[in-house]
Amino acid sequence: MLERLVGEARALVAGLDVDDLSGAAARELVAGFAELERLAVSGKLLATGRLVASGVGPGDDSFRDVDDWLASLSGTTVGAARAATKASVRVLDQPVVHAAVRSGMLSGPQTELVTNATAADPDAAPSLVDLAQSAGVKGLRSECDRVIAAAASREQEYATAERVHGQRSLRHTTTADGSGMIVMTGPSDRTALVMAALEPFERSIFDTNRKAGNPDHPDAVAFDALAELAKTSAASTPDAKRGGRPLATLNLHVSQAAYERGYTVPGEVCEIEGAGPIPVSTAYRLGSDAIIKALVTNGTDVARVVTLGRSIPAALRTAVETRDRVCVIEGCEVDRHLEIDHNVPYAQGGATSLENLDRLCHHHHGVKTRRDLRRLGPPGRQRLVDSVEYETAFIRAA
Ligand SMILES: [Zn+2]
Fold first, then answer.
1. Which of 119, 156, 236, 316 is the least crowded, having the fewest Cβ atoms under 10 Å away?
2. CA–CA separation, 338 vs 270, rounded Å?
3. What is the side-by-side order of every strand in the sheet holding 292-297?
């Protein structure tokens, strides 16, 4: 059956005449092939798990092992093939993920993330599979990191933190065409600190470029910002100005119970905004650091803070920042430079309350404001609708 299917798919692709296709027809084709791709990845994964379990190997001496063979077969690196093989073996013991893979709900990268996290905490499988249906790969990765970090024991956390710190490095290499590359690897609170230091520079470069009518890719803006930061730092007099004035602020989100206990359990967080989970032991070290704004949260008590003014009190701001770590628009994964938005604008009677406030990326905030739209949908999975649809939804619900 598979042989016939492959034959038909081959003939279909070979006979594809895209020049005459309308845009809409092309879009349909892309969606169809994407589903075929997911199903193919699922089938390959399930068969690979069985192949590895059977122990028969690739059946060709020129390949070192199944990973090597799979890499050659799929045109990927051996490292990527190894990750896929690992997922294929793990999924055999994970019924919930297994069922999702079988119905073509997960892509290859999603399966690798979900099986990894499920191996650390089996109870997380249903919610991760569910999240994979709406979040992008980046959002799913953050949640999987969170699950793994929360499931790790205190000893494991310390050991991991020590290894990461021990292997820290910053390397600068250049190539003949005149390009240089800096790769910084190490504890994420330190790398996040560098990224946070870029923010004021990024904002000003972004604004200048936009006024000049040629906005750059955010990665290019970050590059210019780091160069600008280095220039500024070099220009300041060494002794007088380096005396500890903080350049940036990192936001640390940590559940109060975890902070008191010393490690996290499932459902709790201890993470740096924009960088992901860190061990609670690292959080202690950061706590004495002036550049850290620690946001210790203990659940819902700020949920009732409502003020009559437009400005947002600190406790409420903290709650919103803690809750919305990425732009709340469904599918958007921006997690830096987030802006707090009144869903129903203050000028139109909207409250300054946890319920009416959300964080949006610069792009979505701009679209919403310019077109006077509203956010609608479950937390973290909202979409932008016009005010008529927004109000209708509430009348229906009432
Ligand atoms: Zn967004």
1. 236
2. 19
3. 276-277, 270-272, 250-255, 292-297
Contact (CB, 8 A) for 319 and 366: no
Buried/exposed 67-91: b ≥16 CB within 10 Å, e otherwise: bbbbbeeeebebebbbbbbbbbbbb
Which residues in the chain land under pLDDT 50?
A: 237-247, 289-292, 299-308
This prediction's pTM: 0.60
Dihedral sign for Cα atoms in the order 10, 14, 20, 26? positive
Q: Name residues with Cβ closer than 5 Å to ligand 1, which is an ion.
A: 327, 329, 332, 334, 361, 364
334 CA to centre of ligand 1 in angstroms: 6
Question: What's the gap in Å between 359 CA and the centre of ligand 1?
Answer: 9
The domain locations on the chain are 2-133, 168-298, 315-397
Beta bridge partners, 353, equal: 306
Residue carrying structure tokens 């910084």 = 184
**What's the 303 CA to ligand 1 centre distance in angstroms?**
23
**Contact (CB, 8 A) for 58 and 78:** no
Assign residue 280 a region (left: φ > 0; alpha: ψ between -120 and 50; beta: otherwise).
alpha
pLDDT, tens only, 66-86: 898 999 988 888 889 999 999
Query: Is the distance from CB of 180 to CB of 174 less than 8 angstroms?
Result: yes
DSSP-assigned states of every residue in 296-315: EE-SSGGGG-EESSSSPPHH
Token readout for 371 is: 């077109």
Q: Radius of gyration over alpha carbons of the chain, in Å?
A: 25
pLDDT of the residue at 60: 78
Helix-helix angle 280-287:154-166, to 10 degrees: 60
Q: CB of 164 within 8 A of CB of 186? A: yes
